[in-house]
Amino acid sequence: MNNHLLALKDFSRQQLQSLIVRAIRLKNEAADNVRHQQLAGRTACLLFEKPSTRTRVSFESAMYGMGGQVIFMSAKESQLGRGEPLKDTARVLSRYVDCIVVRTFGQEVVNELARYATIPVINALTDLYHPCQILSDLMTVIEKKGAPENLKIVWLGDGNNMANSWIELASIFGFPLTLACPEGYDPDAAVLEESCRRSKHPITVLRDPVEAVRDADVINVDVWASMGQESEQQERTGIFRPFQLNAKLLARAKDDAVVLHCLPAHREEEITEEILESPRCVAFDQAENKMHIHKAILETFINGMYEG
Ligand code: CP
Ligand code: NVA
Does residue 298 share a domain with residue 153? Predict the structure, then answer.
């Protein structure tokens, strides 16, 4: 059993699938007013160094919804912000709580916390990965369209943390993935290389968004400038313009294609208001599923219930 959720590549298909199956079960039970208490008496510390609406509130709501409690700590208001080492922070928090959920910049930060923590560390977004988000996205795809193996799934835009986690997921689950990224904005080279080596199905990076979207079943979009890249916003807006998901581009996909956006969305940049607000866009179902998948993740890692 892997004690930490730092990157999807550390897990098997069966392990990730069991999280999604559990999340769907918890979602159905919540709809039937079942009260969950699997995390009663347990506490999670959310240690966030970047802003968040969905991830923060869905992790907090998940923890409370399972009978547990949460302590939120903004990294800059903690002693970390004054230079206390991560290894000391990890060991101290391990004495107080049952799990650390971290949102930060470098992947090395979550790796270092995990090295010294004696409790699970969960990656709630780094510059390299957004693993929990991708699990809720796959859950949404399965709910809306069925098994990913039978679908054409497309990533459109920046080869960012979301793209990297989709690439790892595709290689683990064994489904083809098509990405369209402008030159110079490819996914992480090491992630791509390792995933392509592991995958039996093609993971293809194209330059042409029209070619990528042709006959797609699922189209993923995300902001053109991620958190920490705000100074590049203007330059990126010019470069990424052909990658905007608008009615004309979406018309190249299958008639029943769905659009995913992890949110927050920048309307009229990576996606038009028309598409975001259309029934084709399942962004708000994705947002809801974050809470259900976070329940499954917290329960599994805190209670050590890993299968597979
Ligand atoms: N999708 C997502 O991670 O949103 P937040 O930045 O609001 O947490
Ligand atoms: N790629 C985006 C995702 C936000 C949820 C970012 O890192 O800002």
Answer: no
Partners of 123 in beta bridges: 102
pLDDT digits (tens, 9 = 90+) for 147-184: 999 999 999 999 999 999 999 999 999 999 999 999 99
Ligand 2 atom with the shortest distance to the CA of 50: 8
- For a mutational test of ligand 2's pocket, the pick from 130, 158, 236, i.e. the residue with the most ligand atoms closer than 8 A to its C-beta, is 130
- pTM of the full structure: 0.97
DSSP bridge pairs for 101 = 46, 122
What pLDDT, in 10s, does the model give residues 207-230? 999 999 999 999 999 999 999 999
Q: Which of 164, 155, 181 is CA-nearest to residue 240? A: 181
Q: Do residues 264 and 231 share a domain?
A: yes
Same structural domain for residues 265 and 175? yes
Question: Is the minimum distance from the CB of 53 to ligand 1 under 6 angstroms?
Answer: yes
List the helix and strand counts (H, then E) for the chain: 12, 9
- The answer to whether residue 261 sits within a structural domain is yes
* Ligand 2 and 162: CB distance under 6 A: yes
